[in-house]
């Protein structure tokens, strides 16, 4: 029998996790499975002699944290975090049962396969392997498995940071999701996108007020009309392009890799050449504001006094305020703005020992690997952990087939992870954590 390794164990653990339905509907009454998954993780850790503590933010909304002591306890700890919840899946749209953890065509299929039970499984497989072989990491490693990442993090990382900040004492750096995956340039060159920045979130509601009245009269102060004008103006508005240091560095590296000149005046020319990830990168050169919900009225022949719309706004690092000033000029002075949720953007440099360790670990397993920094247009648990002063990266290593449309799988139908890529990820994570 072959000796048990992290790469050997990671697929089975990932399958187990995929079979636990942890659908986060955004409504605590219908969200399921987080506690079951956290208990599974706790058992896997305890089986390897690692003690963990479960923290519930609400009934069944479970978060699990463990600390593995390192060789040099005077060094800052490294936080490794993954969320256990997933977005819901409509089984009728899938070609397999989204919670069966089925393995076929070289992939492990299921909701959460890349977002992000793959990385949760890598974390577990690696530390279990260490315990079997008596490996002590160079510094303390804090493992955090969170709830509620998919619906605002209130019951997950935000709760941990607010109520249990002591668990992260001494953590100086962190790695988590949406980074470390490969983007194939050719057979001999793969860029691995390490997330060093995230756009900020500003979900807001616009309120228009007018004079209520009868739908049959002449009426010049209609809240629905005022709101519709504001929503249309926001939806059509294109915010100016700003190239942040992270995006500039990414585009320079991509242009170098594909052999074209980077023109800072026309970054969208380079972005257009990125194929399936053009969408991902295109959203990181400007602020965006997308109308998502509308609400007004209660009867066909009554003009309501109020109307409201929700706008999903994403802002570049350092631009939260200038964005709002611009938004105000677009919607005019009479529309009221209510902030539903605001989370600051983050951005860190692509330098230092930790980044060097990422590059080295990737190259050791893939000689054609080149690590590059990029900005994520969405948000992750890093938003919460960065508020503790922790330097956050997205580094969940995954080697992907050249023809896989990876970004479409996030929250998508037939989400799946390549089995070999998952094993590759476990080996890279093992090397990285041993050398970080
Ligand atoms: Zn995720």
Automatic annotation (TrEMBL):
CDD domains: M20_yscS_like. Keywords: Hydrolase, Metal-binding, Zinc. Residues 196-327 form the Peptidase M20 dimerisation domain. SUPFAM superfamilies: Bacterial exopeptidase dimerisation domain (SSF55031), Zn-dependent exopeptidases (SSF53187). The keyword Zinc applies. InterPro entries: ArgE/DapE_CS, Bact_exopeptidase_dim_dom, Peptidase_M20, Peptidase_M20_dimer, Peptidase_M20A. Its cofactor is Zn(2+). PROSITE patterns: ARGE_DAPE_CPG2_1. Belongs to the peptidase M20A family. NCBIfam families: PRK07906.1 (NF005913). This is Peptidase M20. It comes from Winogradskya humida.
